[in-house]
Amino acid sequence: MTEANPPLAPWAQRETDSRGRRYPQREHPYRPIYARDRDRIIHSRAFRRLEYKTQVFVNHEGDHYRTRLTHSIEVSQIARTVCRALALNSDLAESLALGHDLGHTPFGHLGEEVLGPLLIDSGGFNHNRQTLRVVELLEQRYPDFPGLNLTWEVREGIAKHSGPADLEQMPEARDYWPGVPPPLEAQMIDLVDEIAYNHHDIEDGLESRLLDVDELTETVALFGRPYREASRRHPTEGSWMWAKEALRKVIDRLVSDLVLTTRGRLEELRLSSVEDVRRQPGWLIGLSDVTERENRELKAYLWDRLYRHPRIQQTKRHCARVLRELFQAYSTAPEEMPERFQQLATDDGLARGVCDYMAGMTDRFALQEHHRLCGGPGPDAVPSATH
């Protein structure tokens, strides 16, 4: 039987080795510092707003489709499993899992695609950079400092969420050793994030009927093998339950492969500290070659059949117009924004202040503001992708 909380491995990040917080604080007598970071993220306004931010399907499509909030919770659950298996620091990994999407705009990655060109002369837009801005500046919960005053390691993990920090896109990453790999707890988050959304995007795609289960079974080996096995073992259940069983096996295969592959690399290298992790030439968390190839096949299928589905594209075109027109409206009349964002527009430039305000919006609020300022049709008129 696996221990509930095994002792940390030599290669894990320890609280005692933290570089601390930007603004010194007395730490709590019985709450570890990374657990406090996790709790600060959970209690932030930005985290609560994830409930109404798009993952794939806009909020009005239905109650059971994933949102940025439920996605973040699923990433956290997988991260805890990996930490237990590799004896890593689960408080640190959970902080990164729950906080990794705080900087996402309304309407999913579309918002990044729209805001990026609009901010081309103001430093561009990158959701990891925006997440760092949220936790370092935009959140207001404490009288003694801006942001959440998270530990250096959590902020480093945010800066390196998608791999080595790109200083052109995120000049703030200079504060976080941009050429140095982060601890394993941070290295895992990008891949765990991918495992989570590959799994739930299949389920949401099948529920929406934008994906065809027979085509998926024939095209994607990672799904097809366990689906056919489920149909043989439970012949009376039908395709929906077979798909559920297959999805359980997909996520188990990917997580198990991540654990076994990474453990093999760590044991081969005989690492004895987190400093040894940082000395490596690249990331150590990963999948085996075979599973990585099958995972790429799954991602390619989702990209072609779900993310580029004509009905999804129709919704995206509508939402892109909403964001562009909102950006123009606030840029023309910044007094329509709350006073704090007017001040940010004065301090950091008009485009950045407008971006800060818009990036924090939920889908619903963006549509309401578009209706108020631009005469748009309102939230109920968004084209549906599901019917």
What features would you describe in this structure?
The structure is a single chain. Helix 3 crosses helix 8 and helix 9 packs across helix 10. The protein folds into two domains: 297 residues, Orthogonal Bundle (Hypothetical protein af1432); 70 residues, no CATH class. The chain contains 17 helices and no strands. The mean pLDDT is 93. The protein starts with 32 loop residues before the first helix and ends in a 13-residue tail after the last helix. With 387 residues, it is mostly helical. The protein is 59% helix and 0% strand.
Give me a quick take on this structure:
The protein is mainly α and 387 residues long.
Question: Secondary structure elements and their pairing?
Answer:
Blueprint lengths: L32 H10 L2 H5 L18 H19 L3 H10 L9 H10 L8 H12 L13 H8 L24 H24 L5 H7 L1 H13 L5 H31 L4 H6 L9 H19 L2 H23 L6 H10 L1 H10 L3 H12 L13
Helix pairs in contact: 1-4, 3-4, 3-8, 3-11, 4-7, 4-8, 5-14, 8-11, 8-13, 9-10, 10-11, 14-16, 14-17, 15-16
Which key terms come to mind for this protein?
387 residues, mainly alpha, Hypothetical protein af1432, 2 domains, 17 helices, 59% helix, 0% strand
